[in-house]
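Lecture 7, part B: from sequences to assemblies.

Below are the input chains for today's worked example.
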Amino acid sequence: MSILLPDFGLLFWMLVAFGIVFFILAKYGFPAITSMIDERKRFIDESLKSAREANERIANIKAEGEAILNAAREEQAKILREAAATREQLIKEAREKAEDEGNKMLQEAKRLIEQEKEEALCEIRNSVAELSLSIAEKILRKELSSDEAQQSYANKMVDEAVAQKADKK
Amino acid sequence: MRLLHYILIFLLSVAPMRLSAAGGSASFDATKTIFDHLKDSYEWHITTIGGKHVTIPLPVILYSEREGWAIFSSEVFHHTDSHRGFSIAQEGAAEGKIVEQDDNGQWVRPLLDISITKNVLAIFLNALLLVVLVLFTARWYKRHGCHDGAPRGFVGAMEMLITMIVDDVIKPNVGKQATRFTPYLLTVFFFILLSNLMGLLPIFPGGANVTGNIAVTLGLALCTFLAVNVFGNKEYWREILWPDVPLWLKLPVPLMPFIELVGIIVKPFALTVRLFANIFAGHTALLVFVCLVFITAAVNKYLGSAMTIVSVMFSVFMNILELLVAFIQAFVFTMLSAVFIGLAHPVHHGEKDSE
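Predicted structure of the full complex, as structure tokens:
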């Protein structure tokens, strides 16, 4: 069975050829390829890592922005609420003031009216007194135009006075 | 379409056999045909056109006590049976090999026969192709930085194979020393893969039964043997010569060291035979399917014609299977080499599992 017996010549050339191939490839072929593949692997890993970090940073920034936005929105709501309250307050105050003023003016008017009324009444009273005096004068003058009448009147007066004195006693 | 081309080429390549079968002896000797195709030879027979053999004559390099160095072309055996006392043995243990007559008139092999045979030329061609392909790939990496992204096309395919072997075979099996042995294991893998694939090509640059030859696989196994034992560390040798077993197993009679030493020899032997047997069997099966046509044709013309279809179908199937085997055997050889190298670098007093 020559097929199962290794032929020396072939073995010799095989070792020579394989040795040369191995030498060339081990020197110029495979190390260049494998080192480069490793390098690329490292580069890819690093890139992935930095990408993940960048993503995280972006997410952080986003969250931060959102927080800022929320705060701003709250602030805005607060300011609006305050403004509304202030407005209400102002309106309320103004209304109160206006009411007070109105009341005051009304009272003043009432007072003036009262005063005027009083004055008018006083005047009327005076004029009525004067009038009645003059009327009485006129009536008296007319009634006491005769002496008799005057005498009777005087008497009457005395009587009255005496009566009064007596009553007093 | 490519497959069709392939089948056509295949059929063309088997055409000479048909011619010789038809023109030569009436009965077709399948065994001889198959073995002639599997065996190494001093010339590369490509095809036969119109009864004319197209062969590549190869140099014969001999050294014998009688003649000294003898270098001549194998073409001389076309014209004459004997050249300077050398002739090709037609029978016996050295059948097909060059022999010479010694002083007693016995036909013996010359002292040294390092002729460039068909397989040697095929090895050279494969080696050249491998160097060109790998250096072509390496050139891409030298010209591009790691920022240029991954390569495409052929270089990408090479990278895929290299990455697979490095990450799945070398790193897990060899361990810490992985980078040191990576070039060797990659060279082994690609050498075997390329030789296997070239062996499947039916015509000239391919077709030689390189990895199906025991001398070639022995050569590869010897390289692994050296890689394992030359670079094995102290712990490895201690575990072989003075393993952690009861004293009586190693003192009066060094039983365990002996078994361990046998293990050292068995490993490359297993590598040799596994690769050789797989590829040899594949080539044999392919040739048998092709020969099926001629065997049946010798019996009946019509049966032979009908058998062509079956034969081609089986051959296509076998070729596809052999493509798979070509890869698997290269992978297995590399993996086992990696495992053996890894075992030669035990870290501490671990469990012994060298076999």
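Note for the exam: Chain B touches chain A through 55 residues (CB under 8 Å). Keep this in mind when comparing with the next example.
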